[in-house]
Design brief:
With about 200 residues, this protein is an all-alpha fold. Helix content is about 70%, strand content about 0%. The termini are far apart.
Length: about 200
C-alpha cells in the first residue's frame, strides 16, 4: 500500500519512503526473475515471475515493457551485486587470496546462470552490447582490485591481468549449465589456486 498525502498536501517523509519501498519492490521482482531464469531459463512465463515476486503481471510489464527489458534489468542487477561483493569480501575474508577465491565463486555462479541471455537479446544487439560493456566496466576493476590486494600481500603472482583471468574463467564456464558431469567451479578453483606463490 502506498502512502497517501493528507488533504493539506503535506507528506512529511512519505515521498522518500515511497521511493525506498518502490526500490525494494523492484529488487524483489528482479531477484524473483533471476531465480526463475536460473530454474527455467529466460523464456520462463512472466506470470511465474509475478507469482514468485508477489505482484501482478501488469506490474512487471509496467516496469519492463518487453522481455528484453526485464532480462537486461535482471543481469544489470546481478552485475551490481557481484561488483559490490568484491570490497565486502576483501574486508571480511581471512586473506586477500580467500576474498579472490570467494569472489571468483560468485562470478562463476553469475556466468553459469546467465544461459540464454545472448539468444534472448539477439534481436536487440545494441542492448546486448551495452550490457556487455557495463559488465566489463563494473567487474574488471573489482577483479583487478582483488588481484592487486593478493599480489601486495605476497600471496599470488603479480603479473595476472584481470580481464585475461575473467575471460579464461568465462571460457571454463561454457556449457557448464547443460553438462551435469562438468563442474566449472572446481576447474576455476584450480586456476585460482594455481595463482598462489609456493
Amino acid at each position: 500500500m502506498g502512502v497517501v498525502a493528507d488533504k493539506g498536501g503535506a507528506t512529511g517523509g512519505s515521498a522518500p519512503r515511497k521511493r525506498a519501498d518502490a526500490r525494494r519492490n523492484q529488487e524483489a521482482l528482479l531477484d524473483a526473475a533471476a531465480a526463475a531464469f536460473v530454474r527455467s531459463g529466460v523464456d520462463v512465463p512472466v506470470r511465474d515471475i509475478a507469482a514468485k515476486a508477489g505482484v501482478g503481471v501488469g506490474t512487471i510489464y509496467r516496469h519492463f515493457p518487453t522481455r528484453a527489458d526485464l532480462i537486461v534489468a535482471v543481469y544489470r542487477h546481478q552485475i551490481e551485486a557481484c561488483a559490490e561483493a568484491g570490497p565486502t569480501l576483501l574486508a571480511n575474508s581471512g586473506t586477500p587470496h580467500d576474498a579472490l577465491a570467494r569472489w571468483m565463486n560468485l562470478f562463476v555462479d553469475f556466468l553459469v546462470t546467465k544461459h540464454g541471455l545472448a539468444e534472448a537479446l539477439r534481436s536487440d544487439d545494441a542492448a546486448f552490447q551495452t550490457l556487455h560493456a557495463h559488465f566489463l566496466d563494473r567487474l574488471v576493476p573489482v577483479c583487478a582490485h582483488l588481484l592487486d590486494a593478493a599480489a601486495s600481500a605476497g600471496e599470488i603472482r603479480a603479473d595476472m591481468d584481470a580481464y585475461e583471468l575473467m575471460r579464461g574463467v568465462g571460457n571454463l564456464c561454457i556449457g557448464a549449465d547443460t553438462d551435469p558431469r562438468y563442474d566449472a567451479r572446481r576447474m576455476v578453483d584450480l586456476v585460482v589456486t594455481g595463482l598462489r606463490l609456493h
